[in-house]
Design brief:
Elements lengths: L1 E6 L2 E4 L4 E9 L6 E7 L6 E7 L6 E2 L7 E6 L4 E6 L8 E9 L2 E5 L3 E6 L1
């Protein structure tokens, strides 16, 4: 099993920044890729960004390219999502997920990000 705990969410004004963290514990060696997803009220969960534990293989949703940066600290088993130039449409619950054997099998509890305009 892998446990994921997100932190760093909060309320920020449009144009501001936040950094989300996802601390992983347990059998993290069994996972090969980490991702961030988000779910706005009344909408389906959507992909935001993903990265390999090695730090390579990053990819982003078009809506966040150039504003968000995903990174890892494998020594701390932690994944980060630096979010800059935040917009009201970025308001959502953000979830961290761990990929194993091609599927995101493990999920955190989520952290709320609210961007006020």
């Amino acid at each position: 099993q892998v446990q994921l705990v997100e932190s760093g969410g909060g309320l920020v004004q449009a144009g501001g920044s936040l950094r989300l963290s996802c601390a992983a514990s347990g059998r993290t060696f069994s996972t090969d890729r980490m991702g961030w997803f988000r779910q706005a009220a009344g909408k389906e969960r959507a992909f935001v960004a993903a990265i390999n534990w090695s730090g390579g293989g990053t990819n982003y949703a078009d809506s966040v390219k150039g504003r968000f940066t995903i990174s890892t600290d494998s020594a701390k088993n932690t994944v980060y999502l630096q979010m800059n130039s935040l917009k009201s449409e970025d308001t959502a619950v953000y979830y961290c997920a761990a990929k194993k054997d091609g599927r995101y099998d493990y999920w955190g509890q989520g952290t709320q990000v609210t961007v006020s305009s």
